[in-house]
Design goal:
Blueprint (H helix, E strand, L loop, with lengths): L3 E3 L20 H7 L5 E2 L4 E8 L8 H5 L3 E3 L7 H4 L9 H13 L14 E4 L4 H8 L1 H11 L8 E10 L3 E2 L5 E3 L6 E7 L4 E2 L11 H20 L14 H10 L9 H14 L6 H18 L13 H25 L17 H4 L1 E8 L2 E8 L13
Parallel strand pairs: 1-9, 7-10
Antiparallel strand pairs: 2-11, 3-6, 4-5, 5-6, 8-9, 11-12
Helix pairs in contact: 1-11, 9-10, 9-11, 10-11
C-alpha cells in the first residue's frame, strides 16, 4: 500500500480488570514496536473509578453526575476525605485512587484488601423514574449482569483499566513519528486510542477520546488522500512476509507446547497488582522481570487447534504475544518515570516534577529489553500549572 492507517484501538487487556473488549489487544502498537518504532507515554494508562464488580463494564460518571454517591463498608461517604470540594465528581484518577486506598485499608465491602474488592455506588435515592428516564443503559446493565435493580440496591463498583493515553507517536496529521527529532515514517499513519498525538497528556478528560479519533482520523484521511497522489507504489521484496510467516509456522508446527491461557492470566494479574493504580519501584521492577519471564515462556507456546479456517486459538496466541510486548513497554516506562503525573501515581515519588520530567517518554522494544528516550513537551500555548481543586 502507498499508505497505511492504524486505527486498531487500545490495549487494556493487559490488565486483569478492564472495561476493554476482548479485541483490545494492542495489535497495531505491537506491530510498530517490533519494527523499531517507539511507543510514546506508555506509563500513562487511565483507570476508570467505577466498573461493575467482576466484569469491568463501565458505570459512567453520569450516575454520579445525577447524584449517585460512593460508600465504603462502614457506610461512609469517603470522598469527603479525599476531595472535599468536588466529592464524588472529582477527576477519574483521584476517585480511582481514593477507592483503592479504601480497599487497601480494609474498607472495601468485603474488607479483604484484594485488588478485586469493591465499594458501593448508591443511586437508590434517585428513584426508579429518574433512573429509567436519565440512566436507562446503566439500569439495564445492572439488571442484566448483576441481577440488581439500582433503584433498590447499591451498585458494586471498582476501578477498571480503561484508556491508554500512550501509543504510536504521531503528529497532528496522524503521521507516525520515529524519534524525538520528529522524523516521519512516510506512508504510515495512526489515529484513535492506538495513537499518541498527546492531546490527552497524562490523564484524558471524559468524552475526549471520541473527539480525538474524529478530529485526527479526519486529518489523517485528508493527508493520506493527498499523499498517495504524490508517491509511487512501493515495491516489496520476496522476503517481506518471512518474519510473520515464520512466527505463524512456529506456533502451528505441531510441536507439543503449553497453551497461552496461563501466561495471559499471570500477565494480567502482574500488571494489575504491580503496574496498576498505585505504583512503586519494587513492584514495577518485579513486574518487568515477570513479564520478561512470561515472554520467554511464550516462545514455547503452541496452538491446540490445528484447523486452517478461522483459527481463534491461533488468533488469541498472536494477540497474547502483542500484549506481552506492550506490558513490558508499559512497565519499563512506568518504572523509568520517577514522579507522579496524571494517571501515573507513584507511592515513592508522590509529587509532580516539572523540572526533571516535563517530557514525553519514547520506549523502544529491542529484543528482550526496553530502551528509553524522550522528547520535549510543547508548552508554547499552555504553560503547566499546579493541579489544584
Amino acid at each position: 500500500a502507498k499508505a497505511v492507517l492504524f486505527a486498531t484501538g487500545g490495549f487494556g487487556r493487559m490488565f486483569k480488570i478492564t472495561s476493554n473488549a476482548y479485541a483490545n489487544t494492542g495489535d497495531g502498537p505491537a506491530v510498530c514496536a517490533r519494527r523499531g518504532i517507539p511507543l510514546e507515554d506508555m506509563e500513562f494508562f487511565q483507570f476508570h473509578p467505577t466498573g461493575i464488580m467482576g466484569l469491568g463494564i463501565l458505570i459512567s460518571e453520569a450516575v454520579r453526575g445525577e447524584g449517585g454517591l460512593l460508600y465504603n463498608r462502614g457506610g461512609e461517604r469517603f470522598m469527603e476525605r479525599y476531595s472535599p470540594t468536588l466529592l464524588d465528581l472529582a477527576p477519574r484518577d483521584i476517585v480511582a485512587r481514593s477507592i483503592m486506598t479504601e480497599v487497601r485499608a480494609g474498607q472495601g465491602i468485603r474488607g479483604d484488601r484484594r485488588i478485586d474488592d469493591y465499594v458501593h455506588l448508591d443511586a437508590t435515592h434517585l428513584g426508579e423514574a429518574v433512573l429509567a428516564a436519565k440512566l436507562p443503559d446503566i439500569t439495564s446493565f445492572c439488571k442484566t449482569y448483576l441481577g440488581i435493580d439500582p433503584a433498590e440496591k447499591p451498585i458494586p463498583v471498582l476501578p477498571t483499566a480503561h484508556y491508554a493515553m500512550g501509543g504510536i507517536p504521531t503528529d497532528i496529521r496522524g503521521r507516525v513519528v520515529l524519534d524525538g527529532a520528529g522524523t516521519l515514517v512516510n506512508g504510515l499513519y495512526a489515529a484513535g486510542e492506538c495513537a499518541c498525538v498527546s492531546v490527552h497528556g497524562a490523564n484524558r478528560l471524559g468524552t475526549n477520546s471520541l473527539l480525538d479519533l474524529v478530529v485526527f482520523g479526519r486529518r489523517a484521511g485528508q493527508h493520506i488522500g493527498d499523499y498517495v497522489k504524490q508517491v509511487d507504489q512501493p515495491e516489496l521484496t520476496e522476503s517481506a512476509a518471512d518474519e510473520a510467516r515464520a512466527w505463524i509456522e512456529r506456533l502451528t508446527d505441531g510441536t507439543a507446547g503449553p497453551h497461552g491461557g496461563h501466561i495471559a492470566e499471570e500477565m494480567q494479574v502482574a500488571m494489575m497488582e504491580k503496574v496498576g493504580i498505585y505504583r512503586n519501584a519494587g513492584d514495577m521492577a518485579a513486574a518487568v522481570n515477570e513479564i520478561q519471564r512470561l515472554r520467554e515462556r511464550y516462545r514455547s507456546v503452541r496452538v491446540q487447534d490445528t484447523g486452517k479456517a478461522f483459527n481463534t486459538d491461533l488468533l488469541e496466541i498472536i494477540e497474547l504475544g502483542n500484549l506481552l510486548d506492550l506490558s513490558l513497554l508499559t512497565a519499563a516506562s512506568a518504572l523509568n518515570r520517577t514522579e507522579s503525573r496524571g494517571a501515573h501515581s507513584r507511592e515513592d515519588f508522590a509529587e509532580r516534577d516539572d523540572d526533571n520530567w516535563l517530557k514525553h517518554t519514547l520506549a523502544y522494544l529491542e529484543g528482550d529489553t526496553v530502551r528509553i528516550d524522550h522528547k520535549a513537551v510543547d508548552t508554547s500555548i499552555w504553560e503547566p500549572k499546579p493541579r489544584t481543586y
